Task: structure prediction
Amino acid sequence: MLEVNGLKTYYGKIQAVKGVSLTVKQGEIVALLGANGAGKSTILKTISGLIRPSEGSVSFGGENITTTDAHAIVEKGLIHVPEGRRVFAALTVTENLELGAFTKKGAKSKTAQKIAMVFDMFPRLAERHKQMAGTLSGGEQQMLAIGRALMAEPKLLMLDEPSMGLAPIIVIEIMKIIKNINEQNKTTILLVEQNAKAALKLAHRGYVLETGNITMEESSEALRSNDNIVKAYLGAH
Ligand SMILES: Nc1ncnc2c1ncn2[C@@H]1O[C@H](COP(=O)(O)OP(=O)(O)OP(=O)(O)O)[C@@H](O)[C@H]1O
Ligand SMILES: [Mg+2]
Result:
């Protein structure tokens, strides 16, 4: 579904991505793991057209989207939930969700139906539908950011560190929901995480990124039982 080939991305003279190739097949959850500054967010931004690579290509559903506009990429069903759960603080939960459907010019009833689906998946959001998004807890804002992305009917959902800054119990809740989105909605997922432990519980495969290079590609099971990964990312000493 997604094929990234030889991607190189620079910020001025700094090369953040140094020739990355990766694939995500339909129906998969693929984890992209790596430490701070490894280049994970840069890869997602390059895939979604927010920044341009100097070399390499991105194809989605067999179509080359390397130079496609970011909004056109969204319309194709490739949806990026950026780092840091950016919700519209001064709008309500429901209004935030309505905005997520803006690229789909369908009937209002369709939007209402999709909001009901999101509320089904996130009962906490349903309880707080009239609340200003800025007053939600961190975990609830992350749920809203994911819910808003679902309103755009993603074929491929790219999530940038959904567990960041959240209490372990909320991380478990968010990860369960991500698994549900994959299994029930048949949405393919590229999951960027520093929390390898949480990510590898639900991902089918994973890539390890180190300073702009992919250094490993394995099944989640193989990564979980790899001593180097355990030491570097799974909190063993
Ligand atoms: N706008 C920018 N201008 C210059 N350098 C940047 C910019 N954004 C990122 N970088 C640099 O590119 C490298 C990769 O950053 P990136 O945000 O992709 O890392 P990351 O793996 O997502 O890290 P984190 O886990 O902390 O989010 C870092 O060295 C970073 O300082
Ligand atoms: Mg990042």
